[in-house]
Design a protein that fits this description.
This protein is mainly α and about 100 residues long. The longest helix has 22 residues. The chain is about 75% helix and about 0% strand.
Length: about 100
Amino acid sequence: MYTVKQLRKLLKNYGVGLDYFKPDNDYWNDASVTYAERKVLEENKEYLSKEDLELLKEYDLKAIELYEKYKELNTDTVKDWLFDIAKIAKVNLSAQLK
């Protein structure tokens, strides 16, 4: 179990990971870390504040935009990590729209 403080740090790191995303680098380890952070946030989002959930929504929109922009690149970073991040983000956003 994560504390709220730890979840907020993961949320911040998720945003930073998206800011520094490099689609053309197959060995970009940060992509796997960003995915792991997003997965933990999804599993624990009920502990996030309303403000944190709004920030998560903003970051998820950014993740989807990045995926849409780079989905034609044939790199492991895009095919695997960014695809999986965008998939979680789309589920999260669609749940919020219901």
